[in-house]
């Protein structure tokens, strides 16, 4: 894997002829003789277009805003990009994870702020890192059932300003004070306050059921699959290198400029920072200290951002004169054990959806997987390409195979572009749609795992002038158990993992 990644990074074209070559290829592409995957009696549902404001590292240009400000900007940008009349939108759904208590239904507040009618319903969903995926599939369901023809779905996250609560003891005391009827009652309650009451409850990116951060799970997974620190850093470097290349060549066309009130206009993601293996190697373990291999350099970072897409029935889109970007053919949600099975979703889900669609891995032209950690991606690639793993953990006779890197996250991923929890799903879908068009592909697979051991998958089909094609579902499930144990031996933390053959 190390040498494979090295060759992939070294072989990146140095000039813009790469983009021109793919553009030319697309314009002369001959359709493949494959089935469309359309379903009898089911409406064709399409992505007309989508946008996102630049994804920024938390604590930077968006730090003084509120989440609904970012969501509003994405909605306004979507309207400007598509010229879809506000009154045509039947419903708005937004995803978010860490909710601002002042705007609990952020979809509604953002919609009103963006100028939508107060007659347009809107609601907010939350499903960890797949919240905007949930928003999109909610829209698909509304259209498929005949309730709506046009739905706007999106997601937003502002990690620069997350709610910090008083301790539970202090909250109970304050609520009791609010109900107290006399001065004596109030004084009695105040007298019970102790210094520890003032300790705040800080939010943590951790599993409630296990109290373990996803970074710890990633470290265990990397150790169990014998993914080295060097391999993880190489993959992270690949992500940043490809993202910078995509930025420089203008491929990230879903990004729209955002004039931050009181500040300059933001035009691009600011987390894309190709480094060197030497610099990355200097960073210390971020989660399992001191011997872990997951670091800040090979993990996704806390990010602010918002995204939005407009979804229609194909009939409605064509009637309004729109040329869709892609078909949304199918989606699957799966949930697993949040402790031992948190991050191996693609391995378990991919063979299921391929069989369901009657396709093989070789039929897929574009893979867009959420990069939570480099170790998570590499472990999945290794497991997917292992007959041993398929037979011992999945109950299958043979492996599904690993997605080839030349089709995989070619414009960077969450490690480099950023990961606003609630907004990443829409970015993945739009990147897959744009890549299908650019590269002349037919089938696209989008995968994203989430906290709680839940997984979401989309199947996309390309829509280009010469191609009337259909999409494929992508499934993410997480494996039964890849055991990794940590024990203290002579006061040193050591890993003891199931040996990878």
From TrEMBL:
Mitochondrial trifunctional enzyme catalyzes the last three of the four reactions of the mitochondrial beta-oxidation pathway. The mitochondrial beta-oxidation pathway is the major energy-producing process in tissues and is performed through four consecutive reactions breaking down fatty acids into acetyl-CoA. Among the enzymes involved in this pathway, the trifunctional enzyme exhibits specificity for long-chain fatty acids. It comes from Chelonoidis abingdonii. It catalyses: decanoyl-CoA + acetyl-CoA = 3-oxododecanoyl-CoA + CoA; dodecanoyl-CoA + acetyl-CoA = 3-oxotetradecanoyl-CoA + CoA; octanoyl-CoA + acetyl-CoA = 3-oxodecanoyl-CoA + CoA; an acyl-CoA + acetyl-CoA = a 3-oxoacyl-CoA + CoA. Belongs to the thiolase-like superfamily. Thiolase family. GO terms for cellular component: endoplasmic reticulum; mitochondrial fatty acid beta-oxidation multienzyme complex; mitochondrial inner membrane; mitochondrial nucleoid; mitochondrial outer membrane; nucleoplasm. Residues 322-455 form the Thiolase C-terminal domain. Heterotetramer of 2 alpha/HADHA and 2 beta/HADHB subunits; forms the mitochondrial trifunctional enzyme. Also purified as higher order heterooligomers including a 4 alpha/HADHA and 4 beta/HADHB heterooligomer which physiological significance remains unclear. The mitochondrial trifunctional enzyme interacts with MTLN. Interacts with RSAD2/viperin. The keyword Hydrolase does not apply. It holds the Pfam family Thiolase_C. Pathway: Lipid metabolism; fatty acid beta-oxidation. It is an enzyme of class 2 (transferase). Keywords: Acetylation, Acyltransferase, Endoplasmic reticulum, Fatty acid metabolism, Lipid metabolism, Membrane, Mitochondrion, Mitochondrion inner membrane, Mitochondrion outer membrane, Transferase, Transit peptide. InterPro entries: Thiolase (IPR002155), Thiolase-like (IPR016039), Thiolase_acyl_enz_int_AS (IPR020615), Thiolase_C (IPR020617), Thiolase_CS (IPR020613), Thiolase_N (IPR020616). It is found in: Endoplasmic reticulum; Mitochondrion inner membrane; Mitochondrion outer membrane. This is Trifunctional enzyme subunit beta, mitochondrial. It comes from the Eukaryota. One of its GO terms (molecular function) is lncRNA binding. Its EC number is 2.3.1.155, 2.3.1.16. GO terms for biological process: cellular response to lipopolysaccharide; fatty acid beta-oxidation; gene expression. Residues 45-315 form the Thiolase N-terminal domain.
């Amino acid at each position: 894997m190390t040498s494979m990644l090295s060759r992939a990074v070294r072989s990146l074209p140095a000039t813009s002829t790469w983009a021109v070559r793919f553009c030319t290829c697309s314009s002369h592409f001959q359709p493949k003789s494959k089935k469309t995957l359309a379903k009898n009696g089911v409406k064709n549902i399409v992505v007309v277009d989508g946008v996102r404001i630049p994804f920024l590292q938390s604590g930077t240009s968006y730090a003084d805003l509120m989440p609904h400000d970012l969501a509003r900007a994405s909605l306004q940008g979507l309207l400007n990009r598509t010229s879809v009349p506000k009154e045509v939108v039947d419903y708005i759904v937004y995803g978010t994870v860490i909710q601002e208590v002042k705007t609990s239904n952020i979809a509604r507040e953002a919609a009103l702020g963006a100028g939508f009618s107060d007659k347009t319903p809107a609601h907010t969903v939350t499903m960890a890192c797949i919240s905007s995926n949930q928003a999109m599939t909610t829209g698909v369901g509304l259209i498929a059932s005949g309730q709506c023809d046009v739905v706007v779905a999106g997601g937003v996250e502002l990690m620069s300003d997350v709610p910090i609560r008083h301790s539970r003891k202090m909250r109970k005391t304050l609520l009791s004070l609010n109900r107290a009827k006399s001065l004596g009652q109030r004084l009695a309650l105040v007298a019970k306050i102790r210094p520890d009451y003032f300790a705040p409850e800080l939010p943590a990116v951790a599993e409630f059921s296990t109290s373990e951060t996803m970074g710890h799970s990633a470290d265990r997974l990397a150790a169990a699959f014998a993914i080295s620190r060097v391999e993880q850093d190489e993959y992270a470097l690949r992500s940043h290198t490809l993202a910078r290349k995509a930025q420089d060549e203008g491929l990230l066309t879903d990004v729209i400029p955002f004039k931050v009130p009181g500040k300059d206009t933001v035009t691009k993601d600011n987390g894309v920072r190709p480094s060197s293996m030497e610099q990355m190697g200097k960073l210390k373990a971020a989660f399992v200290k001191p011997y872990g291999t997951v670091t800040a350099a090979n993990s996704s970072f806390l990010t602010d951002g918002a995204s939005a897409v407009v979804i229609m029935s194909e009939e409605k889109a064509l009637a309004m004169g729109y040329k869709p970007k892609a078909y949304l053919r199918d989606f699957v949600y799966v949930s697993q054990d949040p402790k031992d099975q948190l991050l191996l979703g693609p391995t378990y889900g991919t063979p299921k959806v391929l069989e369901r669609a009657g396709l093989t891995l070789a039929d897929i032209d574009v893979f867009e997987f959420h990069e939570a950690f480099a170790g998570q991606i590499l472990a999945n690639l290794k497991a997917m390409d292992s007959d041993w793993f398929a037979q011992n953990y999945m109950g299958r006779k043979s492996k599904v195979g690993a997605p080839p890197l030349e089709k995989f996250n070619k414009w960077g991923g969450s490690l480099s572009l950023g990961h606003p929890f609630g907004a990443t799903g829409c970015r993945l879908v739009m990147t897959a749609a744009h890549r299908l068009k650019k590269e002349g592909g037919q089938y696209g697979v989008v995968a994203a795992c989430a906290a709680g051991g839940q997984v979401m998958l989309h199947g996309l089909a390309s829509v280009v002038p010469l191609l009337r094609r259909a999409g494929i579902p992508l499934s993410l499930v997480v494996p039964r158990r890849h055991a990794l144990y940590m024990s203290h031996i002579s006061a040193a933390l050591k890993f003891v993992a199931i040996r990878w053959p």
